[in-house]
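User: Hey, my collaborator sent me this sequence without any context and asked if I could get a structure. I don't really work with proteins. Can you help?
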Amino acid sequence: MNVRASFSLRGRNPDVLTCIANLSNDEVFTPPEFAALILDTLSDVWSADHNGASIWADRNVRFLDPCTKSGVFLREITSRLTKGLAREIPDIDERVNHILTRQVFGIGIAVPVVDVVGKPVDGGHSRRADACPGRGL
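Assistant: No problem. I've predicted the 3D structure and written it out in structure-token form, which is a compact way to encode the shape of the chain:
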């Protein structure tokens, strides 16, 4: 028997990653709220360890999600860095390019996920060896 919850879009725009996290199948996705809580904790620990500095305002910090599925961590990290680096890199295009090419990385563990999450904005594929010459990826 299939039971579906009622769903309405009136007055709200649901987070697609929340919807994915709630799907009933054999895969387990991290809910966005839990990812945010983990990143809040990381931010607090970083700040305490770095004289009150914000991890989201540091252009030299790198992040790796070693088991990317839905991209929830990558999205939340990118969003926080985009806001946090606004003073240091005022041009939004330059800032986002810096973040996506030098700070945020993910390793997809399932082919369909790699095909979706690993696709750069320009439409190419970042998972192919020709996208990363000399890296053997």
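In plain terms: The mean pLDDT is 76. You can pass these tokens on to your collaborator as they are.
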